[in-house]
Design goal:
RNA Polymerase Alpha Subunit, Chain A, domain 2; 413 residues
Length: 413
């Protein structure tokens, strides 16, 4: 019985072995088809920068011009590769190995050790390019800018910051764009001094805020004290000093504003009645003067301007004087207060004339009739009177000078 069974098994043995081999080969084919080798592209893997301190020790700052992310080609079996993404890889650039062309090689490896030897990773572009700049630090005064409106009848007059100097450090090109270091304070509805901390803000020449992670400041906030005082409106007066060049006269003085708002402690502003600008000189000048002065230079101690930058614009008009000779005859001169028992005879020298000096608009209106020359004879004795005084009617804006001489001879009848 055993012999028959053994014979039967042996007769089918090779067929069974063949079946197993064929089954294994079929399984192998199926597995190779379903888990074949594939290639995928993964984009945007962030590149970590290592050993940046090596550049900082050279007083250099850097910026990534190209290569802050990297794309890779990954090849491997479908079961390992098809679900991979950028989070499954680590990309690094060792800045201490930077070449003379400011480039650094990027290395990419899978995070999982299980697939590290099962896939191949190829960078599309494995170079990071850096921009290197000199690192500088500059000091700036801290300015306080307020916004909002204080209580009616009050003004922000002065401020102090601690510290009042801030150091800005970073790339030379970036730090060079900083024109103002500012602290902004909301003063809405306040009517008394304020103490608070203010955040540092950097501005460029166009008034735009500078936000750059390559720039650092010595401290992010400063302590600010604001003085807020009551206000008062007072007139402005401009007192011109000196005399213009000979032959010229000052015709007009114009200035704006003619009133200004001052502020300060009540006991300091109540005695201020006006602000006087008294150091504008026109000595020896022969043309108009236009100038602008800051009113804060004319404030008493502990008194401020509500508008800290208030200026007065002054225009002084000068005009050249003109001269004109007016001819005079004996008949043009009236002899007044004569007596009936005497006779009067007037003689004028050949060069006799009246020289009139003034602005052209005034001089051209002057006539002999308006001057009305006259001699008062009441207190004159009999005889000859040389260089007798001649009286002229005063005309506004005009000066006169009598040229030559007048002789009056008085005789008894």
């Amino acid at each position: 019985m055993k012999s028959k069974m053994r014979s039967k098994i042996l007769n089918d043995f090779w067929l069974k072995v063949l079946s197993v081999v064929l089954a294994f080969l079929l399984w192998l084919v199926v597995m190779n088809v379903s888990d074949s080798m594939i290639t995928i592209k993964i984009k945007g893997i962030p590149v970590q920068q290592l050993n940046g301190s090596a550049l900082e020790q050279l007083d250099k700052v850097y910026d990534v011009a190209k290569g802050d992310t990297v794309d890779v080609i990954v090849k491997g079996r479908r079961s390992l590769v098809e679900d991979l993404n950028a989070d499954d890889f680590i990309a690094t650039a060792d800045l201490s190995t930077m070449s003379i062309t400011n480039t650094v090689q990027i290395t990419v490896t899978p995070k999982s050790a299980a697939i590290r030897d099962e896939v191949t990773v190829t960078c599309v572009d494995n170079v990071m390019r850096l921009n290197l700049e000199e690192k500088v630090n500059l000091q700036y005064s801290v300015k306080v800018k307020t916004f909002g409106t204080v209580k009616n009848g009050y003004a922000v007059c002065a401020y102090q910051t601690s510290p009042n100097i801030i150091t800005v450090e970073g790339p030379k090109s970036a730090v060079g764009k900083v024109t103002e270091v500012v602290v902004k304070i909301d003063v809405s509805h306040h009517d008394s001094p304020m103490d608070l901390d203010g955040e540092i803000i950097l501005y460029d020449a166009y008034g735009d805020e500078i936000i750059n992670d390559k720039i650092s400041v010595s401290q992010d906030t400063v302590k600010v004290h604001l003085d807020i005082y009551p206000t008062k409106e007072v007139p402005v007066r401009v007192d011109i000093k000196g005399a213009p060049k000979d032959g010229y006269t000052m015709t007009d003085v114009m200035y704006q504003p003619q009133t200004v708002i001052i502020a300060g402690a009540t006991e300091n502003i109540e005695t201020v009645e006006e602000l006087v600008v008294d150091d504008i000189y026109i000595s020896g000048m022969d043309s108009d003067l236009e100038t602008t002065v800051s009113l804060k230079d004319y404030l008493p101690d502990n008194v401020f301007l509500a508008n800290a930058n208030e200026e007065v614009v002054i225009t002084v008009n000068l005009e050249e004087l003109v001269k004109k000779d007016i001819e005079v005859t004996i008949d043009d001169i009236n002899l007044l207060q004569k007596t009936t028992d005497r006779e009067y005879q007037l003689e004028l020298s050949d060069d006799f004339a009246i020289e009139v000096t003034g602005l052209d608009s005034a001089v051209e209106q002057v006539t002999i009739d308006k001057l009305s020359p006259k001699i008062f004879c009441k207190d004159m004795s009999v005889g000859s009177h040389n260089n007798v005084d001649i009286d002229l009617t005063e005309i506004e804006g005009v000066e006169y000078n009598i040229k030559g001489t007048a002789k009056l001879t008085i005789t008894s009848k």
